[in-house]
Design a protein that fits this description.
The structure is a single chain. Helices cover 77% and strands 0% of the residues. It is an all-alpha fold.
Length: 172
C-alpha cells in the first residue's frame, strides 16, 4: 500500500469525523456536543474536497457547519435546561463499546480492502460547480423556484405565529 499525501489526508479527516461523532454521543454538556458536531461536519467537508466535490464541500460548510450549528446553539441558549451531570458510564460498557467499534472498523476494512471500481471517470470533477449550475438552472428551474416559494411561505408562517404568540402574551 502506498502512503500518499491524499491517503494521509483521508485517514486524518476520517479519524476526526469518527472521533467527533463519538464525542457527540459521549459528552454530557450540550454545547460541547455541538462543538464536536462541528468538527465532524468540517471533516466531512474535507472528505468531499478529497473526492473532487468542491461544491458539495462548500455547501456542507455553509449549511451544516454554519447555519445548522448556529441554529442549534441559539436553540440551546434560548431554552431552559438543567445542566446536570449524567451518571458515569461503567467501564464494562465502555469496553463493550470499544470492542464493538474496533470490530466494526475491522469488518469494514476487510470488506473494502480488495474492492475494485473498474475504470475511473476522469472528466467528472472538471468544472463540477458549473455543471451543477447549468443543470439546476436549465432542467430543474421550476422545482428550484417552487422550493424558494415554499421556503418563503414557511418564513411568513413563522413570523405570523411569532406575532400571534406575542399578542397572546401581552393580553395576559
Amino acid at each position: 500500500m502506498m502512503w500518499s499525501g491524499e491517503f494521509f489526508a483521508f485517514i486524518s479527516l476520517a479519524l476526526v469525523a469518527i472521533i467527533g461523532a463519538m464525542l457527540m454521543i459521549q459528552l454530557t454538556k450540550v454545547v460541547h456536543m455541538v462543538v464536536a458536531l462541528v468538527f465532524t461536519f468540517v471533516s466531512i467537508a474535507g472528505l468531499f474536497v478529497l473526492l473532487s466535490a468542491e461544491f458539495v464541500a462548500a455547501v456542507q460548510v455553509l449549511i451544516y457547519s454554519g447555519a445548522i450549528t448556529i441554529i442549534m446553539l441559539f436553540g440551546i441558549m434560548l431554552t431552559r435546561h438543567d445542566d446536570e451531570e449524567a451518571d458515569q458510564v461503567s467501564w464494562r460498557r465502555k469496553a463493550f463499546i470499544l470492542v464493538g467499534l474496533f470490530s466494526f472498523g475491522l469488518v469494514m476494512f476487510l470488506g473494502i480492502q480488495d474492492l475494485s471500481f473498474g475504470e475511473q471517470a476522469t472528466a467528472l470533477h472538471e468544472e463540477n460547480t458549473k455543471q451543477i449550475g447549468v443543470e439546476l438552472y436549465s432542467k430543474y428551474i421550476i422545482p428550484f423556484e417552487l422550493t424558494s416559494v415554499v421556503l418563503l411561505v414557511a418564513l411568513i408562517g413563522a413570523i405570523i405565529l411569532a406575532k400571534k404568540e406575542e399578542k397572546e402574551g401581552e393580553e395576559r
